[in-house]
């Protein structure tokens, strides 16, 4: 079964989904929609937003976090912990990252031009600072992983991918907010499938981090 991941034909929010699919060894095909085709394509989507994944003929799954969780649960290497407490802790971290990610999207892409600077300041002095501080402390305690025991989870992949989105789309340096991010990146690169993907043409960021 090859899952079809549909997003715009560039780097962005879907890259967490792709990274998890790669690390979890989920077979997928990426379909990139060109910006010029979006107006006609949008009404065919459930929420008017991308990404989505065609799971099978009957089921198309939307929402990047739901897709990421599904792939982490379905695939190899226990990216979604089987222990209920550990899984719930990763849910907390993913939800906290999502709070910050949504504010990053607003400040960077959606806010009116004349408010972007102020919204970016609100982001960096508010939720980004507080969430990255908490997660940085966990990385520090756990040798560059969010959970104890050297276990890579979907929450680590979200953190590393969000940091890359910040570096790619803004002037914000995520490492100033979470100095342990280089250690996390090192750990992510220790996973052979993650390294192979990040160095491949399939990585539309075209740089490892
Ligand atoms: N909560 C959704 C958000 C999806 C979303 O905002 N997608 C943006 C691209 S990153 C989009 O489709 N924008 C097109 C538009 O607003 O017309 C998810 O995580 O999948």
Detailed description of the structure:
The protein has helices at residues 14-23, 38-41, 64-74, 84-110, 116-125, 127-141, 154-169, 174-177, 181-190, 192-198; strands at 3-8, 28-33, 52-54, 60-62. The radius of gyration is 17 Å and the shape is globular. The protein has a 4-stranded mixed β-sheet with strand order 2-1-3-4, with helices on one face. α1 links the parallel β1 and β2. The two termini are 30 Å apart. Helix content is 55%, strand content 9%. With 209 residues, the chain is of the alpha+beta class. The protein has 10 helices and 4 strands. Glutathione (GSH) is lined by residues 12-13, 49-51, 63-65. One of its GO terms (molecular function) is glutathione transferase activity.
How big is the Rg?
17 Å
Question: Termini distance?
Answer: 30 Å
**Helix-strand string:** EHEHEEHHHHHHHH
Q: What's the overall geometry? A: globular
Q: Strand order, biggest sheet? A: 2-1-3-4
- The stretches of 5 or more residues where confidence is low (pLDDT under 50) are none
Please describe the topology of this protein.
Elements: E1 3-8, H1 14-23, E2 28-33, H2 38-41, E3 52-54, E4 60-62, H3 64-74, H4 84-110, H5 116-125, H6 127-141, H7 154-169, H8 174-177, H9 181-190, H10 192-198
Parallel strand pairs: 1-2
Antiparallel strand pairs: 1-3, 3-4
Domain GST C-terminal: 80-209
GO molecular function: glutathione transferase activity
Domain GST N-terminal: 1-79
Quick overview of this protein structure:
The protein contains ten helices and four strands, in the order βαβαββαααααααα.
Which short descriptors sum up this protein?
209 residues; alpha+beta; 4 strands; 55% helix; globular; binds glutathione
């Amino acid at each position: 079964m090859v899952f079809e991941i549909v997003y715009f034909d560039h780097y962005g929010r879907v890259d967490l989904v792709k990274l998890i699919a790669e690390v979890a060894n989920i077979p997928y095909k990426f379909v990139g929609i060109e910006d010029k085709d979006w107006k006609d394509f949008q009404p065919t989507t459930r929420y008017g937003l991308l990404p989505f994944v065609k799971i099978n003929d009957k089921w198309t799954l939307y929402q990047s976090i739901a897709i990421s969780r599904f792939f982490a649960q379905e695939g190899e290497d226990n990216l979604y912990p089987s222990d209920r407490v550990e899984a719930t802790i990763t849910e907390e971290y993913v939800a906290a990252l999502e709070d910050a990610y949504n504010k990053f999207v607003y400040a960077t892409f959606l806010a009116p031009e004349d408010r972007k600077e102020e919204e970016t300041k609100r982001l960096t002095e508010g939720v980004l600072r507080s969430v990255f501080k908490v997660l940085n402390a966990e990385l520090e305690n756990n040798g560059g992983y969010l959970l104890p025991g050297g276990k890579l989870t979907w929450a680590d992949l979200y953190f590393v991918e969000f940091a890359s989105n910040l570096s790619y789309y803004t002037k914000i340096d995520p490492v100033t907010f979470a100095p342990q991010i280089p250690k996390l990146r090192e750990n992510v690169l220790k996973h052979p499938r993650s390294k192979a993907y990040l160095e491949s043409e399939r990585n539309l960021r075209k740089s490892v981090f």
